[in-house]
Amino acid sequence: MKGLVIFGGNGLLGKRICEQAVLSGYKVTSLSRSGRPPLPTSKKHDDETWISKVNWEKADVLNPSTYEKFLLDKNVNDVVHSVGILLENSNYKSILNSKGGNNNPTTKTQSYDLINRKSAVLLADTFQQCLSKKKKDENETEDSGINPSFSYISADKAFPIIPEGYILSKRKAEEELLSKYSHNLRPIIMRPGFMFDETLLSTWDIRTSMNTVVSFLDTTNKGLFKGKLPTRPSISTQSVSKCLLSKIKDQSFQGIVPLEEISKF
User: Fold this and answer.
1) CA–CA separation, 11 vs 37, rounded Å?
2) How many Å apart are CA 170 and CA 112, to the nearest integer?
3) Can you give the CATH number for the domain in which 45 is found?
4) Which residue numbers delimit the NAD-dependent epimerase/dehydratase domain (predicted)?
5) pTM of the entire structure?
6) Which of 46, 50, 49, 45 is nearest to 30 (CA)?
């Protein structure tokens, strides 16, 4: 069975990448600091089925010794980096995904460059080394026809309230991945817009509310202002995941996947 390793597999997007990968027949390993995600509280959507098929493990993306063994699995030829920070306040995700948004932010910060760029480059470098080791150990002398992929979740563009450092760190990561690893990996750069989960549209939280605002502004811009304002549509995590898996399966594809392409799925 084909193996797929996803870093950040228990996040908003990571979960749906895991789900789509399971449905696509992959043996999926999710690596994150916390490991297994909590089971869904709602029984409306059958998340428990695919969650039980994922290998949930703990690892630190900045410490290769915690995850090298998973990359050395002979069936793993595809890796996804779905780790990142939108705001340098390390507590922003709990605020954004909360029901009331009353969490008190901590003063601890994380660097955009460290999380959004360096962690991706370090992971790609480690993956490349593991692929070379596997090829050497297996005494491969001929081309197997398999083109390993390294997928990076980037972003379409930054929102007005988001610091410039966010999108800058993403673009630097893209540039480095495409320039350094294209010769023996297939870098796949996904550029989604503001993301929401289709299964949560009937519930209320800050992210769902923000999605409503983003969608309204984009629709209004296209209708009244003929697209003259710099608005962009939101995108579901399900669409991003389906598009990503299609690019991973396509052995000839590498490069940037813009929001317009993702929106077709």
Assistant:
1) 8
2) 8
3) 3.40.50.720
4) 5-84
5) 0.86
6) 50
In a domain, 218, yes or no: no
8 near 83, Cβ under 8 Å?
yes
Per DSSP, the three-state class of 1 is coil
Q: Do the Cβ atoms of 87 and 161 come closer than 8 Å?
A: no
45 domain residue, yes or no: yes
- Residue 204 included in any domain: no
Encoding tokens for residue 241? 């995941």
> Is residue 243 a part of any domain in this protein?
yes
How many domains does the chain contain in total?
A: 1
* Tens digit of each residue's pLDDT (9 = 90 or more) over 192-206: 998 999 887 766 666
CB 64 within 8 A of CB 122: yes
- Alpha helices by DSSP H, listed for 139-230, are 164-181, 206-224
Distance CA(128)–CA(150), nearest Å, equals 9
Question: Which amino acid would we find at residue 238?
Answer: Q
Do 177 and 152 touch, CB atoms closer than 8 A?
A: yes
Residue count (the chain): 265
- The DSSP code for 89 is B
Whether 45 contacts 53, CB under 8 Å: no
Structure tokens at 220: 């209004």
Over the stretch 66-125, which tens digit does the pLDDT of each residue have? 999 999 999 999 999 999 987 765 454 443 444 444 333 333 456 999 999 999 999 999
Domain that holds residue 169: 3-198+235-262
